Every structure is written in structure tokens, then in C-alpha cells.
Amino acid sequence: MTKARVAAAVLTAVVLSLATSGRVQAADDPVPKQLGNAVVSEEGGCPEGSADPDCVTTVGIESMKIVKAVDKTVAKPGERVTYTLTITNTGTVPLTGKSVTDDLSGVLDDATFRGLDTKGGAAEFAKPTLRWSGGLAVGGEAVVVYSVTVDDPPKGDLKLANAVTGPRGSNCAPGSGDPDCSPPPVRIPLLKIVKKGEPKRPRPGGTVNYTITVTNVGTAEYQGADLVDDLSKVLDDGAYNRDGSATTGRVGYTEPNLTWTGDVALNAPVTITYSITIDDPDLGDGRFDNAVVSNGPGTNCPRGSTDPDCDEHLPAPLYDWGDAPDDYPTERSKNGAHALIVDDLRIGATIESETDGEDHEDAAGDQGDDGTTTLPDLYLGESGFSLTAVKVHNATGHDAVLAGWIDFDRDFAFDPSELARVTVPSGDPEVDLNWSGATYGEPGETFMRLRLFGESSSARRADFDVRPTGFGGPGEVEDYRMEVLPAEVKIVKKAKVSKDTVTYTIKVTSTSPNEFAASFTDDLTRVLDDASYNGDATGGATYAEPVLSWKGTVPGGGEVTVTYSVTVDDPARGDGVLANVVVGKDSNCAKGSEDTACRTRTEVPPPPDKPGNPSNPGGDVLVRQELPFTGFPGMPLAVLGLLLILVGGLARRI
Which domains does the chain have, with CATH numbers? Predict the structure, then answer.
């Protein structure tokens, strides 16, 4: 064979191999192309340049181009952000059964998915992933548009970042660094506003200096901030000095509102200052109460905010804070529970003011926590818990609310299901808080929070939600350490024999001083081979052969008694022993317990060999309950007594 024939044969084999698939998937290069080659053989009928299809083979290549775009690079809280995915078949063969995914995990920590629209193929969203699937003709295109709204306030890393992933043969295959697959993250600006006034105890003729600090705690410049400070409740006691200024932006004043507008860059807080001069004499109400409000989104001071950093009250009000561990939370930085101290509303006899919550491991940092002096322990399994005789002072002339949360499950959170509340009438009442349906965790330390929500001349209780955290208006906060203990359930079972009937009595008690949930089962399998259940169970017990069951509550300091009976068969045809064991979870009769109080054993004599057995002249079945050993079998009591007398006399002679 000539070299030409050998070359032709090899090339023919290559072409045939490619032709069997009909297409090749581009690995990393999405540029459309095709594989084409030709065999040349003068002798074989394939001269150079021949277009004979037997001499030339072309193989198409799959290729997909994905471009992800976003309509903005900065979005304030509350704004909508729209993403567009454009998927194009840039290959030379149709695409079928392809899918593209977009993981929104890095978006949904700060935003909420709003919806999608698709042109070409099909798309669906199952949090946190958006998925497109379908096919595309050569040059065909699919477009997926979806949007999210930035949360206000956002709770994540303050940026929306995600990337689209396509199949192999696309520019966005796994591991791709193509910028078309991942647009720049959308950054979120966020403002923290803090207002302060000095001095804390203004005097007639003096000056009150106000400072508002605006800090951008987000990830992008905040443009177009707009703040308003209403001085209505200040100007009845003084006059604005028209000295408003700011380190950047513009300060304006149209009585009674002082305004500021401007941009807030990252790492460049804006400071706004102004002052008033107090009248002398001061004929107003002696109070200087005003709050700064943001007209734009993404701040801690929207209209209606209860954040104490947004307002100032002079003379400075006093606040009461909690002192439980900060996981609950307690401190200002985590929006811990705090209340405005007023003269006519408190828990107990005293109340102490603080500037911040105290993260105290056993909630013992506030000496003013005196609403209750006797705090009972909690017991696992209690169906209810009561805190009685909590002392409250309410001289507001309006009803107040005392709320309590106990962390029953010990997860360091006061859950809505762990709340008890009671209305507190005006006066000096003692009130009770009652919890029910508690879900317990493991035994150990836990905490209770009491909060009093009331009214004053400047605030209504209705303006503040009953919640375990944040500012609650006029009232008080008291935190207490508690202990969750394992409750000891005691079960005692006894059997009483009367002729052919055995009556069983089961008593259940608990060490818990409160109502306690308990249960037990009593398997009668080894009783029913010699006896029949009489269907007479008391105390709410139920029977499903061969098991008698009871489930209910044991009253605090009390007991539950369940009785039932069986009648011995005549004749008894089993093993001659009525033996059974009561089993109660979390009790002395737990499964596998060897406590003798949980079991009974009663023997039944064997049936007589023939009628008229002299040991049973009446024909009744005799039942003998096993008793402790007291002597030799069959020894008459008279003989035993005589022996004792003889032994005693002998002892005297000796």
C-alpha cells in the first residue's frame, strides 16, 4: 500500500468517528466553530479541493453564551432591583435539554424575591435558586427577567451578589471567571442617626445645644438623605438661635422644622448642630421633647420610630433596662428591652435607672427587681406554671399590662408561645401570671423577663407592642434567673385479693408543686392467661387488650389513683401466676426499672383433680398472694408459739 493510501485510510477513520456523533460540545471556548477536514487522494478519487461529500466531513459544535445584567449598582432599602439573563445559542447545532441556574443566596439575605418573566424556555424559582431549562435553535435566544426588593431594614451583608451557572460548553460553566456571569454586586447604603442634647438639666436663660450625627453604615454612598427635626415641643420654652450648621449638605429652617439634606459618604459621618435659648422666665411646660425623622428609606429613624437614638427628652428621662444575658437580648446595641421610668408606674416597690442593659450571667445586676421575692422552680413536664402575687404600682388612672416570658425550652430566646400577660387595674394590686402548654428543653438554668406596659401624660400604652425586646414606653423591665428541674414522678402499684377477684390500685404522685403531665401503661399479658379483665378501670384509664393505659395530669401536691380488677378463671388454665409491671416514662417505673413498687405477683393454686376437693369445698377459686417468708412451710402457728415459750424459759434458767 502506498503512503497516499495509508494516509487516506487513517483520515477516513477519523472522519467516520466524528461523523457518528454529529456534534461536539465546546469545552472552554464558546466561540462558534465547526470541525471540518478532508482526505486527499488522487488515486482514491479525492483530489485536493474536492467537494465530494465522501471526501469532506463537517461536525457541528454546541456553544452557549450567557450574559447576566442588573439595572443598578446601588439600591436603597425598599427599592426594586431587576436582573436580566440572556441565553444565546452561539453554536452551529440546536441545543436541547439545557439548564442554567442562578443561586440567589447572596441576594436574599438582604432582599425579597418579587417575581420573574421568561421569553423562550421555562424558568422557575424555588428559594434560593432560579432555574431556566429548555432548548434553543441555532442563533436562538432566551431571556429571563426577575426582580427583588431590598428589605428595610436589610439584615445581611448589605450587598446583593450572585452568579449564574451554565452547562459545559457555555461561558458560565462551573468555575468560570467570565464577568458576564457575575455582574458587580449591588451595594446598599444604610444610615445610623443619633441625636443628643446638652445639658441634661436645662435652666431658664441657658442654652441647649443639639447634635445630630449621621453615619453611613452601609456599603455605598447614601445620596439624597433628607432629615426633619420638629421643634414644636421645644419652642414653647425657648427660641431657635438660627445657628444650624452641618459638616456637609444643607441646613434649612422653616418654623417649627429644622431640615437637612445631603449625601453621606462611607467612613465620613455628617454632624449637624443647632441650639435654642431657654426663656427666662420659662413659661412653657419645662420639657424639651423632639425627634429627628428621615423622609428617606434605610435609616433607624423613619416616621413612627421608637428608637431612642432618634429623639431627645430634656430634662433627660430615666430608663429602666434588663439585666439578663445579652442573648435575649438585653443591651442597647441589640435593641434590648427598656422602659421609660415614670412616677406612677412600676413593678414592686422600687425602680432603678440605667443608661444601658447589663449582660449579667444570673440576672442579678438590677437591685430594683423586686416584683416577686418568691420564685418557684420549674419542673420538666409541667403542663402549667403560675407566678402569683406580683406586686405592681399603677397610679396612672388607666389599665396597664404586665407581661412575662419564660424561656422554657432554654434556647436563649423569649418566644411568643412563652408569653403570659394580665391586665393591671389602677391602684396597687397583686396580680398572677399563668402559663400553659410549655415546651421544655433539658434541665438547667433559664430566665424570665417581666415587662410592665402602661401610660403616661406623654405616651399611650397602645403605641407600644407587648414584646420582650426594644422600647416599651412607660413601665419597667425585670429579669430573673430560674431553674428547670427534672420532676420526680412516683408510681406505686398494689394488688388486693378477695376470693376470686384481684383488685389493683396504682397511685401516681409528683414532686412538682404545680400541675404535672404524666402517663403509664400496664401490660396484662401474664394476667390474662389465668384471669379476665372486668372492664372497670377508674381515673380516666383506658384499655386496649392486653394493655391498660393512663395519661393525664397530677395536681400540684396531690395524687392520681387508678383502680381496676380481674376475675380469676375457673378453672385457671395458665401458669398459675398473675404477674404484671406498670411502666411510666420519667418515673421510678421507667422501662427496665427493678423497683418493686412497680410490680405485683399473685399466685393461683392449680385446679382440683376432681370435683369436691376438700381444700375448696365451696367451689370458689382460691387465690394466694405471695408473702414474705416467715417460717418453715406447713409449721402450725401453735407449735411455733410453744417453741418460743420453751426457748424463753430456758433462757431464764441459764
Answer: 3-62 (no CATH), 64-187 (2.60.40.740), 191-310 (2.60.40.740), 319-485 (no CATH), 495-611+617-625 (2.60.40)
